[in-house]
Specification:
6 helices, mainly alpha, globular, single chain
């Protein structure tokens, strides 16, 4: 398994252009949030709550991946993922428990964010990293978090 530094460097190779980077700062978290929303909207085996839903299950699997790469990344995504799932739960509650409405809102965010991601990569002149390796779908959020960690002095 590649190290976190190798993966972040590889991801960064196709993210050099300032406009593309800016787009990623908005769209990567938006895509992550919208995926949690889409997963949350899928019926679960028991009553859907903030703890019992497919978004939380997906978060737990992603956290295993991040733990294998870096404990600081793991803890960062415990916080980020929890806040996002809480936000999705809030939207679900504000739509009076209408999973279809949550799915539509999430789908809209997902499609718009991906359109901008592809625009950013067109400007960059390089294909998105995940087309080479699907694990880069999880490295994108870590790539953003590593900048925050560097800024505040946390070693990842």
């Amino acid at each position: 398994m590649a190290t976190i530094d190798i993966l972040l460097d590889k991801y960064g190779e196709s993210h050099q252009n300032g406009i593309n980077k800016f787009i990623h700062w908005i769209c990567v978290p938006s895509i992550m949030f919208s995926l949690f929303g889409l997963l949350y909207a899928i019926p679960f085996f028991v009553e859907r709550t903030i703890y019992t839903n497919w978004a939380t299950v997906a978060l737990l699997f992603a956290l295993v991946y991040y733990m294998r790469l870096s404990k600081p990344m793991f803890w960062g995504f415990v916080l980020i993922g929890s806040v996002m799932v809480y936000g999705v739960n809030y939207i679900y509650e504000m739509t009076f428990g209408d999973a279809k409405m949550l799915a539509l809102i999430s789908l809209f965010i997902f499609v718009v964010a991906w359109i901008f991601q592809f625009i950013g990569h067109k400007i960059e002149g390089k294909k998105p990293s995940f087309l080479e390796d699907l694990q880069f779908l999880l490295i994108g959020p870590a790539w953003l978090l590593h900048f925050i960690y560097k800024k505040i002095g946390i070693k990842y």
